[in-house]
Amino acid sequence: MVKKVKGRMDESILVCVSYGPNGERLIERGCQLAHMLHCPLHILTIDPAPFDELDGEKSDYITSWKALAAQFGPETYILKDDEKRPVADVIAEVAREKHITQIILGQTAQSRWEQLTKGSIINALLRKIPFVDLHIISVSRSLKNDEGHFEKGVRAYLEQQEKYYRLTFHYSERVMYEGIFFKEQGTDFNNGVFKFMKGSEMLQVPVVEDIVKELRHVRMTEPLDDDIL
């Protein structure tokens, strides 16, 4: 159980979470750091849609994160919904308001093309709040569930077919998504889980013999390590 810590004026931590299984992992990392430094902790979620228009899955994530945050205090969790401004602008504003000195972020959801055309969120934050330390937590490449184990994750892609997606390990112009494939141990076929970013969400979708029928998130795994893509 997380214990509430006494605040210090010299350090304050902000954890920025987006929807997906990595959110709880980022919050746990923030809790650990806050305990080490004996400082205040704030958790931020940003969504362009109003809260009452969020779907059930997003609402469930927010409820879970609020419960974790409540163990630190009533003002720990911050939801910026119906937010049309750039993400970096909102994070920088909250950082100034809460006197944040350290920010924890998940691996960027931007593609390489978006980084080239729109600029990196990380670079934008470095320009807007240069005296804040940034901690970038990568996507895990090991998965485990109660029923079995997966092999080490490898880079893979999804190509869109007429009514489904096909897993491939070679990039081509038909590729729609890039991510990590976790193959089930003890199978000769490509059965397992494909983990990737879809917009600002981290999704895990089941793969059966190279085929993904739909981009439906399944909560069947837990991250074990900090390896990067």
What can you see in these coordinates?
The chain is of the alpha/beta class. Helix content is 25%, strand content 28%. It contains five helices and 13 strands. The strands form three sheets. A six-stranded antiparallel sheet has the order 11-10-9-7-8-12, with no helix packed on it. It has a five-stranded parallel sheet with strand order 3-2-1-4-5, with helices on both faces. β7 (154-160) and β8 (165-168) form a beta hairpin. The radius of gyration is 19 Å and the shape is elongated.
In short:
The chain is an alpha/beta fold.
Biggest sheet details: 6 strands, antiparallel
Average pLDDT level: 79
Low-confidence stretches: 1-8, 109-118, 144-148, 220-229
Secondary-structure element sequence? EHEHEHEHHEEEEEEEEE
Q: What is the tally of beta strands?
A: 13
Strand order of the largest sheet: 11-10-9-7-8-12
Question: How much helix, percentage-wise, in residues?
Answer: 10-25%
- SS-based structural class? alpha/beta
Strand residues, percent: 25-35%
The rounded distance between the terminal residues' Cα atoms is: 31 Å
Rg over CA atoms, rounded to whole Å, is 19 Å
Number of helices: 5
Overall shape: it is elongated
